[in-house]
Amino acid sequence: MLDLICVLTLVLLSSECCVGQQALPPGPVSGMLAGNVTFPTNSPQSPAQQFLTITWTFKSSIGPVPVVSSLPTLNNIPAAYEGRVTVNRTTGSLELRQLTLSDSGVYAVNMVTEKGVTLTGETNLDVYAPVSEVTATANTTSPVEFNDTVSVTCSARGSKLFFKWLNGTSEIVSGGRVSLSNGNRTLTISSILRYDSGPLYCNASNVFMTRRSVNVTFDVYFGPDNAVMTTVPQNNLYTTGSNLTLSCSALSNPPAELHWAFNGNLLVQVGSQLKLDSTLESQSGNYSCWAYNSKTQRYKPSGSSQITILQKISGANLTGPSGPMIAGNSSANLTCQAKAGHIDSREWLKNGKTLSPSDTVTISADKSSVSIKPVQVSDSGEYLCKLTNRVSNDNAVYKLIVSYGPGNVKVDGKRAVEVGTRVELKCSAESVPSATFSWAFNDTARNVITPEYIIDHATYKDTGRYTCVASNHVTGLNASFVHTLSVKEEGSLPGELSSGAIAGIVIGVLVAIVIIAVVVKKVMKKRK
Q1: Where do the H-state alpha helices sit in 274-433?
Q2: Whole-angstrom Cα distance, residue 458 to residue 419?
Q3: Is the N end or the C end of the chain the one with fewer CB atoms within 10 Å?
Q4: Which CATH superfamily hosts domain 132-212?
Q5: Mean pLDDT score, 117-129
């Protein structure tokens, strides 16, 4: 110990002229409780550089406290720092481990180089306790909209904390109805609104970590607002015997109590619906609903609705011809009536479009009947009679089928084929109802009654005329079409080569290639 004091004294006397060079970078230095921290120096890392002495002290309230004194061959470490400090002999930096809150404060260093230069410096160490136990406490979680002011306070354990409030992922800042106080610990929302329900939470942080509170959600009592009454079905006029449902709704928390009024007088019914079943004309009048919130002590009426109940049209019936209608020969009369209810108007539609008079179509003055004379193919379709009064309408439908044809008979198929190939002839015709078919070959009837006539393997004997006869059993008309088929020798038709012909062509091409190659080779030899 005496040797250490003598060396330090000798070093300090020999380096007195150079004292004052700054050894430490600007601070402070920060560390976590129970963690480690390094005090860096401004001295570069260099193996060639060695310090005669490195002395670190802690400036406590009662004076400097030695931390470590380091000589080239000896380190003097007080018991309080034994096992907790390490000095870098090249740079002079100090590592302090197992930090405690009492380690916070000012640290000073004095370093003397081999050339007698003294480096000194001071820096602050801030030891931070971890952030924990973050809680957010509100003065109420069930405020009344517009009436109440809500305050939420954030508390936490830890060192040098700062606080931030968030709504979801958005930071809350002061402004308008929102204010932050007590170092951002307290969030105040005045005249709270339903949209302020949250979830809100606070973050407590220091330079090392951030912890958040649990969510705070407000059950804001509001309303009733926007009281609305609807009627299903939604009309101004209804028929006797109808079942009506009046529904009332309002924006409210908690849900509003809903009351009903008829012609200004409260009814005994309470709830979101008022059902009027099997209505009578005496139930015509003004209906409205009232919404009440027991928490906010507020009322809200809906608008009134005038409901009128009258008798409806029923039993619409559209009659027409019962026998078959043949185009160009038959006439059709359609009549539309109803069993009950006064008819204000009639409307005729054909295939969903308004039916208009024409040279062959006549509509009676009261629109109760339609006459078509004679019927045409274009008159086929669905006829609808729509009966209407102020409170209802009813429809009746009649489907008119006009028979015609057959016409435009044709046969699709090849007119020339090679022997042995498959032949498919298909006959078609325009006809209602659908035509039936029969076939003849060279004027001789064949036992084929389908639209298709098929020959699996054509022979020369199949050459001839194929007649398709189309028949309509309603119109009693027949129509025919003659298709001529010619069966040719194999390979005689363009684009239809036999396998033997294809093989011959391939062989011929190969022989030609060989001849050309021989000729070219002889020519090349002569040139040489």
Answers
A1: none
A2: 5
A3: C
A4: Immunoglobulins (2.60.40.10)
A5: 95
